[in-house]
Design brief:
The complex is a heterodimer of chains A (144) and B (724). Chain A is of the alpha+beta class. Chain A is 45% helix and 25% strand. A four-stranded antiparallel beta sheet of chain A has the order 2-1-4-3, with helices on one face. In chain A, a hairpin with a 5-residue loop joins strand 1 and strand 2. In chain B, the strands form nine sheets. In chain B, strands 26, 27, 28, 29, 30, 31, 32, 35, 39, 42, 45 and 46 form a twelve-stranded antiparallel beta sheet that branches. A nine-stranded antiparallel beta sheet of chain B has the order 33-34-36-37-48-44-43-40-41. The relative contact order of chain B is 0.09. Chain B is built from seven helices and 49 strands. Among the domains of chain B are: 104 residues; 146 residues, no CATH class. In chain B, 17% of the residues lie in helices and 40% in strands. Chains A and B meet through helix 1, helix 2 and strand 3 of A and helix 1 and helix 2 of B.
């Protein structure tokens, strides 16, 4: 009888632990979602760079035109239910970062106000042309 | 115990045993399950961090690769366009890149360090971050670096990765062996890393240069404008067939000498050359009979200069270029950085082995000097400048035996763009502190403005430019070699002499690379000075002097080229083309008689009854010597004529046996107008030039000067022979 009790007690403990574990880290937690969005954002930027689009638009001498084209490219490449906010930074002569142009935003700006719902990807472009002039792209993503 | 009871108890014990086993199994399963659950619970965040870490590493490495390609593209483009690129900036740029990465990913605490690594690509080593192997039928541009990434955020350190990128190209030169009359296309194979063909190029990515004999320069060949997207050879092995717009535009033999440059879509350049050396022979033209030359010609060493378009020079004379067929064309020098060139020569005849010979790179100008064009060196060339019409490569060819008629020469170029200028060890040294040039045959101290008196000669020259000749073995001074002089001062000879400061050309720019064949000293002066009384000068109303001295390694001679231009008419006694002091050392002298062609002398200096003695008809050489040391002054034919050009009846070889104050002197002098006669009046615009060589030998007699003076005469200048 004691053996049966032992078995039952063990089962109860195991089920409890499993339940607790699942309750603590649900498979579809926001963290998983954030990771998925980060991967998505990185892949999109990398893909655009491989095709030469990213460098061409980011280094367009007409900043407004380049950023407008870049927004279109991101809208086409990212799923429609993903909002994005892309900011481009560059270095000044003293090595300090400053923002180039405007924020490139698609979707509801409210979606980026809750940091726990937003994934951020930082991507750096080496240079284009003769001069050393790297650009840092900070892409925030949020699912609708 | 009854049998039934016994069976029941055994059954109960057996049943309890099964539960025990089940319980044990359950406990084990439970423990294992809990362990798995606990592990996944504990390692979940670690797994998540690792993904993020790897993602950031990927991002950093991807952008770093772009950076490396950017650096390689910029470096090779500058090498292609300007022939020079600062390799030192590569390390600086990578440090800056590492700093910017840190700023770009502030939350990661990234510390990226780059290091040099050694890698191979297409059988060539890549190190020092960048290596370029160009200007041969195969070429490569490559970059490699090792990256070490630490991340404070993830607590992960020491991620190492080495990466390399390259562009390789090869031009198919097999058509040269087929010897067609002309070619309409050439094949160029273009590959990148790991042997992958580069298949996205168009004709715009290629440039083909050919040497245009009419232009005397390289010109681009127009290519048929096409892309190669459907070309199977391009897709399979990266071989492009470049078609010339004019199918017969490149005729024989000019198709042998092409420069092909390719750049890929990343902007990385490679330059190729269809040839890698220029080969020819140098034939001596001096007499080889023992009656004229003695038994040896061990010191018959020519210092040759070669320039673009097959122009060769020796002792100021342009050499003849010829071939057996009479139609052979000298291969052009490719327009690559001049420091790449090297020279090999044979020493035992043209069939002997080629051995490296020191070479140096000079830049020459055709200067309009008082309405006359003079060919003068500007100095050592910028080693990174491309070989052009002003460039000359200087090297030496020896004829150590009288039976050697020809020596083979191969001017080739190194394909490593990091190659320094040739710095073959030699005996030529210049000490700027003592203004002295050293070879193993002689020492020359440059006297002039800034260094007016030699510690080895007791007279101050007050800024007069001269060369103090010193015996290298014992430091004994033979006195100065005066370049030019005019007039007398209270009975002393050669009053007005060129005044100024020597410009010494021994170093390549501001580098520590030095001349290995010869030092060049230039005097460009508009003033003269009274060497006996400085309160009279310096004065600018006499004549201008442009003098160039070549102090040459490994030989017994030094050469001097002088141009004189008179600005005003002046009257005085005597014009000297050279007065070479003796400091009392020489005991005998002799000279070659211009009219008889035979040796006049030898004579003995009479120091007991010292005088200035003049002899008529000076010819191609004069010499003075003692038992240990001797010096000859050798004039080429043009200089003899120049000496005779002012007043041939007053041309003299002369000697002076005492210095001012009565000290022993023992000079040899060349007087265009003798000082022993009436005064002479020059005129504004009087101009003359002369080329002299001083032969330094072991004395004993004049024989050695008489044996070797032929090599400085124009009619005995060597001949350049092309192979066919």
């Amino acid at each position: 009888m004691r053996v049966i009790e032992t078995i039952l007690a063990s089962l109860v403990i195991m089920v409890s632990l499993t339940f607790v574990n699942n309750a603590l880290i649900p498979p579809y937690s926001p963290r998983y979602e954030a990771m998925e969005l980060e991967k998505l954002g990185y892949n999109v930027l990398h893909n655009l760079e491989t095709r030469g689009i990213l460098t061409r638009y980011v280094y367009d001498l007409n900043v407004a035109r380049g950023q407008s084209l870049l927004k279109s490219a991101l809208m086409v490449t990212l799923p429609p239910d993903v909002y994005f906010n892309l900011t481009i930074y560059r270095f000044d002569e003293s090595g300090q970062l400053y923002m180039e142009g405007q924020h490139i935003v698609y979707g509801d700006p409210e979606a980026f106000k809750n940091p726990s719902q937003v994934s951020t990807v930082t991507y750096i472009l080496a240079s284009s042309g003769d001069c050393y002039d790297p650009r840092i792209l900070v892409l925030q993503l949020s699912r609708r | 115990m009854p049998a039934k009871t016994c069976r029941i108890n055994r059954f109960a014990r057996g049943k309890r045993g099964q539960f025990v086993i089940i319980a044990a199994l359950m406990v084990v399963i439970m423990i294992v399950s809990i362990a798995v659950v606990m592990y996944s619970t504990v390692s979940y965040y670690r797994y998540e961090s690792w993904e993020e870490y790897m993602s950031s590493v990927d991002n950093v490495m991807t952008s770093t690769k772009e950076m490396l390609v950017f650096i390689l593209a910029n470096y090779t483009r500058k090498m292609y366009e300007k022939g020079i690129a600062n390799k030192g900036v590569v390390g600086d740029m990578l440090i800056r890149w590492a700093t910017d990465l840190y700023k770009a990913f502030p939350s990661y605490g990234l510390n990226v360090t780059f290091s040099e690594v050694f890698m191979w690509a297409y059988n060539r080593p890549i190190y020092n971050f960048i290596k370029c192997y160009w200007y041969r039928p195969e070429g490569l541009s490559g970059i490699c670096a090792g990256a070490k990434i630490d991340s404070l955020k993830f607590g992960l350190y020491g991620y190492n990765k080495s990466v390399s990128y390259c562009l390789y190209a090869k031009v198919d030169v097999s058509y040269i062996d087929r010897n067609p009359d002309s070619i309409g296309n050439i094949n160029v194979t273009v590959l990148e890393e790991n042997g992958r063909p580069v298949a996205d190029l168009t004709a715009a990515n290629f440039e083909v240069l050919m040497f245009d004999p009419n232009l005397g320069d390289w010109k681009a060949v127009t290519l048929v404008n096409r892309d190669y997207s459907n070309d199977k050879a391009v897709a399979s092995n990266g071989t492009y067939t470049l078609e010339f717009a004019n199918p017969s535009s490149i005729q024989k033999p000019y198709y042998k000498w092409l420069i092909v440059t390719v750049h890929d879509s990343r902007g990385v350049y490679v330059s190729l050359s269809t040839y890698s050396s220029i080969d020819f022979e140098v034939q001596r033209a001096t007499p080889t009979s023992q009656s004229l030359r003695g038994t040896t010609s061990a010191d018959e060493i020519y210092t040759l200069e070669c320039g673009i378009g097959g122009h060769w020079h020796w002792n100021g004379k342009e050499l003849s270029v010829t071939s057996q067929s009479g139609t052979a064309i000298m291969p052009p020098f490719p327009p690559l950085p001049i420091k790449q060139f090297r020279v090999k020569v044979t020493e035992t005849g043209s069939s002997g082995p080629l051995v490296p010979s020191p070479c140096q790179y000079e830049i020459w100008d055709k200067l309009n000097w008082h309405g006359k064009t003079i060919d003068v060196p500007r100095g050592l060339a910028d080693p990174w400048a491309r070989f052009n019409a002003s460039s000359r490569i200087v090297f030496q060819v020896k004829f150590p035996r009288l039976d050697i008629q020809k020596q083979k020469v191969s001017i080739h170029w190194l394909d490593d763009l990091d190659a320094p200028p040739d710095q073959t060890p030699g005996d030529l040294v210049y000490d700027s502190n003592t203004f002295t040039a050293y070879t193993n045959r002689y020492r020359v101290e440059f006297i002039g403005v800034g260094h007016t008196k030699s510690p080895t000669y007791p007279y101050d020259y007050y800024g007069v430019a001269a060369l103090v000749m010193i015996n290298p073995s014992n430091g004994l001074c033979f006195g100065p070699w005066n370049l030019h002089a005019f007039g007398k001062y209270e009975g002393s000879l050669g009053r007005w002499r060129p005044y100024g400061q020597w410009q010494i050309k021994y170093w390549y720019g501001n580098s520590n690379k030095r001349a290995v064949v010869r030092l060049i000293a230039i005097l460009n002066s508009t003033q003269v000075q009274n060497v006996y009384n400085p309160s009279n000068g310096p004065r600018s109303d006499y004549y201008d002097t442009y003098a160039v001295v070549f102090i040459t390694a490994n030989v017994k001679y030094l050469q001097l080229n002088v141009h004189i231009y008179w600005k005003q008419a002046k009257t005085d006694n005597g014009i000297w083309f050279a007065s070479i002091m003796g400091n009392g050392g020489p005991t005998n002298y002799a000279f070659l008689n211009y009219t008889t062609g035979s040796v006049a002398g030898p004579y003995q200096y009479n120091y007991t009854n010292p005088q200035h003695r003049e002899y008529k008809y000076p010819g191609c050489w004069a010499a003075h010597w003692n038992n240990n040391f001797g010096r000859g002054i050798i004039l080429n034919s043009a200089s003899v004529q120049s000496l005779r050009s002012i007043d041939p009846s007053r041309t003299r070889f002369s000697i002076t046996e005492s210095a001012p104050g009565g000290a022993r002197q023992g000079s040899i002098e060349l007087e265009a107008v003798n000082c022993g006669g009436n005064s002479y009046t020059t005129y504004a615009g009087l101009s003359y030039s002369y080329t002299l060589a001083m032969w330094m030998y072991d004395g004993g007699s004049y024989t050695e000067v008489n044996n070797y003076y032929y090599m400085f005469l124009e009619s005995y200048a060597p001949i350049i022979w092309l192979g066919v």
